[in-house]
Amino acid sequence: MYRKLGVLMLVLVLVSTMLTGCGGSKETGGGDSDVIKIGVFEPMTGSSAAGGQMTVEGIELANEIKPEVLGKKVELIIVDNKSDKVEAANAVSSLIDKDNVVAIIGSYGSSLSMAAGDIVKEKKVPAVGCSPTNPLVTLNNDYYFRVCFIDPFQGTVMANYAVKELGAKTAAIIQDVTQGYSVGLSKYFMDAFKELTGNENAIVATASYNTGDQDFTAQLTNVSSANPDVIFAPGNYGESALLIKQARDQGINIPILGGDTWESPEFLSIGGDAVEGAVFSTHFTAEAPVTEVSEEFLAKYKEKYGKEANAFAALGYDAYMVILDAIERAGSADSVAIRDALSETKDFVGATGYITLDENGDAVKSAVIKKVENGEFVFLTVVEP
Amino acid sequence: MTMSFTEFMQHLANGISLGSLYALIAIGYTMVYGILRLINFAHGDIFMLGAYLTYYAIVFTSIPWYIAFILAAVITGIIGFLLERIAYRPLRDAQRITVLISAIGASFFLQNFATVVFGGRPKAFPIPQLLNKIVNLGGVSINIVTFIIPAITIGLLIGLNYIINKTKTGMAMRALSKDYDTARLMGIDVNRIISITFFIGSFLAAVGGIMWGIKYPQLMPLMGSMPGVKCFIAAVIGGIGNINGTVISAVVVTAAMEILRFLDSSINLGFIKIPGIPGMRMVIFSIIFMLVVIIRKDRLLKEN
Predict the structure, then answer these.
(1) How large a percentage of chain A has pLDDT more than 70?
(2) Which chain A residue is nearest to residue B3, measuring alpha carbons?
(3) How far is it, in rounded angstroms, from Cα B77 to Cα B81?
(4) Which of A43, A66, A367, B46 could join A52 via S-S bond, C-beta 3.0 to 4.6 A?
(5) What angle (nearest 5°) sits at the alpha carbon of residue A78, between those of residues A124 and A16?
(6) Chain A residues inside the 8 Å CB shell of B123
(7) Alpha-carbon dihedral angle through residues A58, A63, A66, A71, given to the nearest 10 degrees
């Protein structure tokens, strides 16, 4: 009897999922109402949660400031991609098929964005990334854009800093092999570092780990035995903070450099004293607002959230505003029309700077270098492209 | 191969300390299996709760950290007891597979509950200054927590052995794990003994969670699943149901996994440089693990 009941339950579950599945895609008719839907897929949980949540704060603020376009209300549909590539692809499919969004914002994490790349291309719905910096996100994809700089530039900026400011002659790499972001950025850093030092063998050691690893003692021991002048270790803020803590525990006291993902409060709280002196590149700083929009954004953000805004919130804000600007210029909420307008974005005044999208859909912008001092991110310098 | 003596010592020290930590979690698997023949899938999540409760006790109250540690471990023990009351006891006479499914359900519940309540963003475990010191031993720089963890495990293991071998409750536990039905007929209060078992197992998992927090100060809602699997493996290799065997196996298995790390790094033979293969150690480890299981298949699941 129990068995029969079990089968019955199974059938019920299957049927109900099928029904909801169909029901969702039948709603297409209601798409042209007085609401324009913009989908957001960001990591709200998992290893990149802090980055995703900070980005969403910026997007929500932008939606509050500019809630309407073409006389219609803009509705944000936010889904959690759980810092997982499969979930990211599912999230984007469901935004397009079930929610009928006309454009998509996301995602923090290059690998997560790439997981959605083919889907947005095939369904012809434009996506604007806030902070995915790997070149492959937008390459050969007419439907993917981004409001941030890309890693060849970011890697060069950090290699320049290592060679010119720190006087480094050799460097070691510790990369997260499961993150396109980390592998790509490491590669560009290595290329630039070798060129700047004029030494083909300037990278004396390379070590790898996976997202979710907690212990980096082995990689650190291995890398430090090659006696590099600096370590470049771009990766998630959590893993990177643990890595730096373990390096200092092991008595490795050389400078450790990274990329824009480090800018999160968790990097400071998890790393504690150990991350003092860590240097990384990022997109934006509250200390040096670049445009009139930056100042407005900073003030409104502080008013709403009671804290200082960071790069991810600012990029989230810009991604939303760039899409709305494209809708206005297109004069329509049709996905393909929005895409065409997006590709013509020129000198758009955003919170993070002036945004012009090049033929790949990438923004060409300046980078900011920050350092951890007394438990805070301190602005060092701005680097022009 | 090219691993220097210092590197070897670093990995060994790290392996023993991590292994002692895993031992604390593995004991819970082994005790529950010994009595109920149940793989308590939610045990890794109990470990996670222990770490989070400690975080909240230290950050949101003004009680000293050592009291917070004890308090969090006791509360986690009570949660373990409640878990058994709610999810397993009603199924005492059901088929074993039913209880197993209930355990998986409980695990999902705890993970998702933690995501909702504690949030998806990681929390930084507040490490007491006293436990965050670096010592230098003959050129090897090591955090003292590496030595504290094995010491605590040994202390708790002595206490646990006393309970099991010298007290009436311990005698009842041994009787139940030897012959559940006969022990029941002899008038042992089965429910009481099982509740105590869950309390002890969860208490130890919470101590493991606290140690984990000090070693790797990043708390996440899903942090229990991976250690959970590793500890279960350790419990099986050590002879599930056998507490001391489980502890030894956890330490040996983890230390071996750490020492195998030389496979991850590149090997320089002077004339040729063989690149390291990241992840290779887990492949080798899995093969060794499967071999152990196959060779020792008759003795593996024999309870002590």
Answers:
(1) 91
(2) A222
(3) 6
(4) A43
(5) 85
(6) 269
(7) 160
CA separation for the pair B227, B44 (Å, rounded): 7
Indicate whether A145 and A294 sit together in one domain.
yes
The single residue listed with the structure tokens 């983890």 is B254
**CATH number, position B116:** 1.10.3470
Angle at B196 between CA B191 and CA B202, to 5 degrees: 125
A356: left (phi over 0), alpha (psi -120 to 50) or beta: beta
How many CB contacts within 8 angstroms connect chain A with chain B? 94
- The answer to whether B202 and B46 are in contact (CB under 8 A) is yes
DSSP state of A378: E
CB A226 within 8 A of CB A204: yes
Closest by CA position to A110, among listed A51, A159, A67: A51
Does the pLDDT at position B220 exceed 50?
Answer: yes
Average pLDDT estimate for B77-106: 94
What does the alpha-carbon distance between residue A55 and residue A319 come to, in Å, rounded to a whole number? 10
Which token pair is B118?
A: 């504690």
- From B127's Cα to the closest Cα of chain A, the distance in A is 9
The tens digit of pLDDT for each residue in A121-131 reads: 999 999 999 99
**pLDDT value at residue B10:** 80
Instruction: Output phi, psi for A287, to 5 deg.
Output: -70, -30
Q: Is the pLDDT of residue A21 over 50?
A: no
Same domain, A256 and A295: no
Domain total in chain B: 1
The answer to whether the CB atoms of A217 and B141 lie below 8 A apart is: no
pTM of the predicted model as reported, rounded to 2 decimal places: 0.84
Q: Are A46 and B222 in contact (CB < 8 Å)? A: yes
Mean pLDDT (chain A, rounded): 89
Q: Count of alpha carbons within 13 Å of A51, Cβ hemisphere only?
A: 30
Three-class secondary structure of residue A289 per DSSP = coil
What residue numbers bound the domain in which B294 lies? Answer: 5-300
Question: Which residue range forms the structural domain that includes residue A224?
Answer: 152-282
Say which residue the tokens 């400031």 belong to. A65
CATH of the domain at A345: 3.40.50.2300
User: What's the pLDDT tens digit per position in B19-66?
Assistant: 999 999 999 999 999 888 899 999 999 999 999 999 999 999 999 999
pLDDT for position B170: 93
Residue of A nearest to B132 (CA): A249
Pick the most confident of A209-218, B37-46, B283-292: B37-46
Q: Say yes or no for a CB contact (<8 Å) between A249 and B141.
A: yes
ipTM comes to 0.85
| Terminal C-alpha separation, chain B | 39
